[in-house]
């Protein structure tokens, strides 16, 4: 019994690693296909990789549906409508949809872009992605508060800059919604090259909003960094030295 369990774990390990490498290969191919010379010269190779990936991802999707149907009370719905289920479905849809429905060239490009979704499948197989996902969940209340504060700041700065610049630049600051783009760029410290204040009050507000933006951008970064450090410390506490090889292993 122990041998069968060990074999099953080994199969799961090699399967996960195989899917992991296949996802990375898909990402590399997606990048290389952006070069016209490579796309034309190695079109057959890219097509073979795509078809092989679709077969593997489709089999994985079907297998997970069958397992969910057998092991979960909610049946296959528990997987198909879960986050990973939707992600797995989106990763194979771009291949099958054009075979069922006729699409124009622009729509086909959008569908091909959906192949990028496959990268997020790494979250199921990568410990690092799982850690980040856990951290984001734990820091969700703080991040939501930060997002709400950001929304208030953007609306406030958009309104202020509209009244300060509307008369001087009615074409660029024609409404608060138009000023929203400038406000967002200034608060995130990215800046907007084609729109900038020219009045003294507008320049003062721009400088003030820019300074506030520096602190605002650091808020979510600090929250996530702090949660990550706490998580790393927690994992280290749960690790012990293996009596056989001396390598640290998780004691949980």
Number of domains: 2
Name of the CATH architecture of the largest domain: Up-down Bundle
Biggest sheet character? 2 strands, antiparallel
Integer-rounded radius of gyration: 25 Å
| CATH C-level label of the largest domain | Mainly Alpha
The proportion of strand residues reads under 5%
Count of DSSP strands: 2
What is the string of helix and strand elements?
Answer: HHHHHHHHHHHEE
- Distance separating the two termini: 23 Å
Determine the structural class based on helices, strands and strand pairing: mainly alpha
Strand order within the widest beta sheet: 1-2
Q: Summarize model confidence as the mean pLDDT.
A: 77
> What name goes with the CATH superfamily of the largest domain?
Voltage-gated potassium channels. Chain C
According to CATH, the fold-level topology of the largest domain is Four Helix Bundle (Hemerythrin (Met), subunit A)
Relative helix content: over 70%
Low-pLDDT ranges: none
Q: Based on CA inertia axes, which overall geometry fits? A: extended
Report the total helices.
11
Description:
This protein has two domains: 2-125, Up-down Bundle (Four Helix Bundle (Hemerythrin (Met), subunit A)), CATH 1.20.120.350; 140-250, Helix Hairpins, CATH 1.10.287.70. 75% of the residues lie in helices and 2% in strands. It is built from eleven helices and two strands. The chain has helices at residues 2-32, 36-41, 43-71, 77-80, 83-100, 105-113, 122-125, 127-138, 140-165, 176-187, 200-237, and strands at residues 239-241, 248-250. A two-stranded antiparallel sheet has the order 1-2. It starts with a helix and ends with a strand. The model has no long low-confidence stretch (mean pLDDT 77).
């Amino acid at each position: 019994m122990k041998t069968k369990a060990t074999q099953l774990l080994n199969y799961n390990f090699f399967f996960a690693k195989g899917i992991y490498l296949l996802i990375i290969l898909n990402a590399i191919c997606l990048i290389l296909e952006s070069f016209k010379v490579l796309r034309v010269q190695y079109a057959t190779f890219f097509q073979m990789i795509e078809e092989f990936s679709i077969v593997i991802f489709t089999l994985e999707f079907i297998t997970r549906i069958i397992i969910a149907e057998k092991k979960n009370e909610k049946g296959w719905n528990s997987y198909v409508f879960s986050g990973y289920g939707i992600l797995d479905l989106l990763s194979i849809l771009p291949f099958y949809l054009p075979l069922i429905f006729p699409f124009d060239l622009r729509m086909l490009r959008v569908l091909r872009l959906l192949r990028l979704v496959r990268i997020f499948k790494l979250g199921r197989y990568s410990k690092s992605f799982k850690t980040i996902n856990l951290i984001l969940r734990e820091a969700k209340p703080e991040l939501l508060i930060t997002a709400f504060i950001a929304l208030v700041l953007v609306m406030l700065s958009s309104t202020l800059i509209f009244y300060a610049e509307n008369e001087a630049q009615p074409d660029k600051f024609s409404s608060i919604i138009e000023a929203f783009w400038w406000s967002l760029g200034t608060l995130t410290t990215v800046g907007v090259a084609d729109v900038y204040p020219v009045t003294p009050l507008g320049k003062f507000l721009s400088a003030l909003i820019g300074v506030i933006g520096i602190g605002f951008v650091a808020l979510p970064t600090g929250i996530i960094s702090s949660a990550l450090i706490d998580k790393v410390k927690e994992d280290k506490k749960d690790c012990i030295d293996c009596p056989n090889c001396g390598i640290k292993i998780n004691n949980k």
